[in-house]
Amino acid sequence: MTNRAANRDLLDHLSGYIAHHKGVPVLVGVGLVIVGLGLNVVPGLGNGAGFLGWLVRHDVLLYIGVIAGLLGILLGDAL
User: Fold this and answer.
1) What is the 3-state secondary structure (H, E, C) of the chain?
2) Which among 35, 43, 54, 68 has most CB atoms closer than 10 A?
3) Distance between CA atoms of 39 and 61, rounded to whole angstroms?
4) Where are the domains of the chain?
5) What is the per-residue pLDDT across 27-67, written as a single tens digit (0 to 9) for each?
């Protein structure tokens, strides 16, 4: 029962923050897209076998940035 109350408080706090700072999720999305672009420009980084190479090969930061930006626009208008 306390878990639901904690989740409700977290959602209330998060929605209040987004209502007062409508541009932050969009700026986070733009930042993720720029970081993804910067990682794609570095030669040879996509050929690596680690986690960073996987991020670059599959453009994960680009997709997460676009989703965060679109959700930020939708939530900013709704709140």
Assistant:
1) CHHHHHHHHHHHHHHHHHHHCCCHHHHHHHHHHHHHHHHHHCCCHHHCCCHHHHHHHHCHHHHHHHHHHHHHHHHHHHC
2) 68
3) 9
4) 2-78
5) 999 999 999 999 888 888 878 778 888 888 888 999 999 99
- Closest of 44, 46, 42 to residue 54, by C-alpha: 46
Task: Write the CA distances from 2 to 16, 43, 60, 61, integer angstroms.
Answer: 21, 50, 35, 35
**CA–CA separation, 75 and 35 (whole Å):** 23
Q: Which residue has 């987004």 as its token pair?
A: 18
**1 pLDDT more than 60:** no
